[in-house]
Amino acid sequence: MVSGYIIGVVIKMKIFSYKEKPIEVHGVPFFEERGILERLPEGVRKAVPSLDGLGRRCPGARICFRTNSPKIHLEMIFKTLSWDIGMSIYACQSANVMIGDRRNARFAGLLHADDYETMVCHREFEKSSEMEDVTIWLPRNEEISDFKISIEDDAVIEAPTPYKYPPMLYYGSSITEGGCCCRVTNAYNAIISQHLDIDYYNFGFSGGAKGELEIADYLNTIPMSIFVYDYDHNAPSAEHLEKTHEAFFKRIREKNPDLPVVILTKPDFDYDPEGAERRKVIYRTYENAVNSGDKNVYFIDGETFFTETDRHFCTIDCCHPNDLGFYRMAEKIEPVIRQILGE
């Protein structure tokens, strides 16, 4: 922590790095040991080169703390900054600031670049002078090289309120990663996290999750309370799913015999002529597990996610959910997570 004067602000501020205690970073595996904002370590990225870039960014990552400062100044420095054909700066390159109790937090606004050439962005946020939780959701698409939090000089920062439940882990496609809601807090797994106050890791890889066993072996090293398993979209064919889906599940189950596993199929069932065949393959993984005596495996049919009313309003491109699509996904998946948690 250092002190300094923020440009354009008369009040003297204390400046903290996101790596400093009591600030906590959630949603990044082994951050406490490594201090690096990345999902996949170098050795795993070398084993699965197609995930090299995707493994360096951290959708679902959150910087968390409590403070009584009525003004919070944030600075975010990008390591990468590139446009996404399906998503805006607000959806891809923005940090989302939420203030208050996580289940009822209020959206304070976005911290984002003004354009695709501005690598450093600043913004001041106002809150009450009460001690409150602040949860900063990092951008979905980019690597972040640094992040600083400044509070008023006579205010304090404390550790955040602990999550009610330990982390669950999601593995899947660009939909799992958060494409294409208007901001990162609106992805279905983020919605579930906020509703239930449950920590989580997002291992969605746009076009990249294909059931590689090297990834299963890495996920097995991460403590998780629930595993949500969905890479239907990224498998190039039903035949690929047949070869990889049950094998991946079994590799996870070998190391986690009692872990609740929730198996999903793709939500945009209407637009894929191969969808029914893919669903059969995925359901077979579930059915075989149940028939072998597995009592901690669950299946949710993706065709039910968008419900029967106005299904065509739920995606941006007949594939990726928009905010309505993600909300409807959360409405179907959350009750199963509640059942597992005993809520």
What gyration radius follows from the Cα positions, in whole Å? 20 Å
- Sheet with most strands: 6 strands, antiparallel
What is the subunit arrangement here? single chain
- The tally of beta strands, per DSSP, is 16
β content, as a range? 25-35%
Low-confidence stretches: none
Shape: globular
The proportion of residues forming helix, as a percent range, comes to 25-40%
Q: SSE string, helix = H, strand = E?
A: EEEHHEEHEEEEEEEHHEHEHEHEH
How large is the count of helical segments? 9
Query: End-to-end span in angstroms?
Result: 40 Å
Which class of secondary structure composition applies to the elements?
A: alpha+beta
- Averaging pLDDT over every residue, what do you get? 95
Give an overview in words.
With 343 residues, the chain is an alpha+beta fold. The chain has 9 helices and 16 strands. It starts with a strand and ends with a helix. Helix 5 packs across helix 9 (323-341), helix 6 runs parallel beside helix 7 and helix 7 (238-255) runs parallel beside helix 8. Helix content is 26%, strand content 26%. The strands form 3 sheets. Strands 3, 4, 6, 7, 9 and 11 form a 6-stranded antiparallel β-sheet that branches. It has a 5-stranded antiparallel β-sheet with strand order 1-2-10-5-8, with no helix packed on it. The longest helix is centred in the last third of the chain and has 19 residues, at 323-341.
